Amino acid sequence: MALEQHRLPSALRELVVDMNTDYLQYAVPVFFALILIEACYSHFKGLRLYNLRNSLSCLGCGVFTTTLELFVKAGLVGLYAWVFENYSLMQLSDASWVTWIAGLIVFDFLWYWAHRISHEVNVLWGGHVTHHQSEEFNLTAGLRQGALQDLMYWPLYLLMAIAGFSAEMFVAQLLINKFYGFWLHTRAIDKLPLIEGILGTPSAHRVHHGMNDHYIDKNHGGILMVFDRMFGTYQAEDEEVMFGVRKRFASFNPVLAHFDWLLCLWRDACQTQNRWDRWRIWFMPTGWRPVDVENSNPRQRFSTADYQKFDAQPGQYSVRLALAIFVLVSVANQILLLNAEPVSWLVKGLGAALITVGLLWMGKLLDESKRVSDLQTGVSSD
């Protein structure tokens, strides 16, 4: 059956297929409006949910991710469409509400496993860890996405193509997942008793971002919590959450954040004398290190009793300059993404390079006079 028969109506197709333009046009204004509302609520209630340096770092991570995706996302969606056309077991109609519900459940199931495995395998954690590095938990953390995450998740996503869901349906479910996941990153909303343990909630997702011992690697679901319950990874929020990662990224640099864990793995792989360990370190459980490297260069173990948040105290001039740079790179990012089609690859490359340099400069300014009372360098997958 022809692929055209399974496509969405043209208006909806334009919304979900062009991920670089419509996503920005529709979602970004809503995201920033909600961030402003949460920040104002935090200020007037005295909740101190926001740290400007941390928030700029989180938002900078989002800018860097969407800039890199300009070069890979179309190819990944194209690969999905090719698998669907050539290897799907069936071709489900996008016009059916049953397909939409089934698509949401199937996508969330694949998301659960991709997300869970990314916490459990060293190299995959390298693509996801960026999202967990923030020691503050607010809506800006929802935009702190790993630039390499979707690339690493994509092999599992292709199972959805084989099951018979079109590329348009897949993109729609991917965007629904991202939209839904955004509001989960807040401390301003308490538990929601009617849906806790059934749907993803801010409370459940706070647990997922926690470093507390019994919160580690819990609540991987996106929209649904049922898969966490089925596979034994559900945990209710029962104590105050400590946010961040145990192998701390002691910087606000939004570019280096994406490569910190991968560089740690590379250094360990280079230092070990065991040739087999140089290869298997990438695919071992998160935090695993060659024995000889751990003995010669042990990492300090994380202690909840001694933990204090990382911070930096740059001068007001540095913060204001960093904020100005962020505004400029954000505008450049949106111009580049909204005009991706007619722009040559050379111009895209130059634009991406300038954005990256700007974010590196911003990170350097935010890290001035950085301090932490007791820098923890223990390892965990969460």
Q: Which ranges are low-confidence, i.e. pLDDT below 50, for 5 or more consecutive residues?
A: 1-17, 372-382
First-last Cα distance = 45 Å
The helix/strand class is mainly alpha
Number of strands: 2
DSSP helix fraction: 40-55%
SSE arrangement, N to C: HHHHHHHHHHHHEHHE
Architecture overview:
This protein has 382 residues and is mainly α. It folds into two domains: 3-230, no CATH class; 256-371, no CATH class. It has helices at 10-17, 22-45, 52-87, 97-120, 122-128, 149-162, 167-182, 202-208, 226-230, 260-271, 275-280, 291-296, 316-338, 345-366; strands at 311-312, 370-371. It has a two-stranded antiparallel sheet. Helix 3 (52-87) runs parallel beside helix 13. The longest helix is centred in the first third of the chain and has 36 residues, at 52-87. The protein starts with 9 loop residues before the first helix and ends in an 11-residue tail after the last strand. The model is unreliable at 1-17 and 372-382 (pLDDT under 50).
Features:
382 residues, mainly alpha, 2 domains, two-stranded antiparallel ribbon, disordered N terminus, disordered C terminus
In short:
By secondary structure, the protein is mainly α.
